[in-house]
Amino acid sequence: MKARRRRGVAAALALSCAVALPGCVKNTEHTGSPAGPKVKVAAEAGVADLVPKSVADKGYLKIGIGPNYFPNEYRDSHNKIVGWDVEIGDAMAAKLGLKAKYVESNFPQILSGLGIGDYDIGISSFTDTAERRQKVDFVDYYKAGTQWASGARTEKVGPGNVCGKTVGAQSNTYQLLDYLPALSKKCVRAGQPAIKIDSYDDQTQSTTAVAVGKADASVADSPVTAYAVKQSHGQLRLSSGILEAAPYGMPVKKDSDLSRAMVAAFEAIKKDGTYYKILKRWGVHAGAVDTFQVNGGS
User: Fold this and answer.
1) What pLDDT shows up at residue 24?
2) Least confident of 7-11, 30-34, 54-58, 61-65
3) What is the domain range of residue 254?
4) Is 15 within the bounds of a domain?
5) N- or C-end of the chain: fewer Cβ atoms within 10 A?
6) Does residue 88 sit in helix, strand or coil?
7) Is the pLDDT confidence value at 35 over 70?
8) Is 25 within the bounds of a domain?
9) Cα separation of 236 and 227, whole Å?
10) How far apart are the C-alpha atoms of 28 and 70, rounded to whole Å?
11) In the chain, what are the helix, strand and coil shares in percent, each to the nearest 5?
12) In what order do the strands lie in the sheet with 81-82?
């Protein structure tokens, strides 16, 4: 299975609604991020002691990130990098007694940069795959898959009744490049009409198309779809469960002692409730995991 996270997007996107629509999802702090204060996290001595000296001496984790995947990681209206993935990274770093220092990069450069010391870790909704593990290790912390959304007051459209329907997806994603074309071919082989697949520059445009009736459904990574539904003020609904689930992992340099420290930090934020509180706050708690491990992807 190919990685779901989109590839090769070099710059952060300034997202806005494709049309004027009450409740339309906007990628800004004021209308995109959930209300309420962030969860505060304190360092934990036994966990912080596991941090390699080279990192501990700096006092921060240098984190490569591609902030263009709302609501996981994106830039808000003040140009600040935010998102539930970012808050999880902040909490993990805090348990290690470190600050999180985010450095914007594009998707493939984060992985290559880890090997030459440009970053300590990466955070960018990476799916832990065997292909990527040839170059880096992954500390797995979340489980995501493909999920569908359709209009709240129209037919619920999902993989079982999609033939001949119009479905939107974000450009450069697994859903647009692999998943939907494969489903469409299956329709044709069964003598049914092909799927009309619409490509959008950002996920906001895809979900807005469903809300205004231009598309029958939208497909994306499960946390992206779940948050779009949460922010739609009842105009969208989930129309499938989480399909083809696989772990998100934070990449680190191969055989780095930092991965062991990160696992301990994740276990600590799960134990004190921080992990679930963050995911619940963003409405993406369906992907919460019970255990954290290194290289647990298929």
Assistant:
1) 38
2) 7-11
3) 45-144+247-289
4) no
5) C
6) helix
7) no
8) no
9) 10
10) 9
11) 30, 25, 45
12) 68-69, 73-75, 81-82
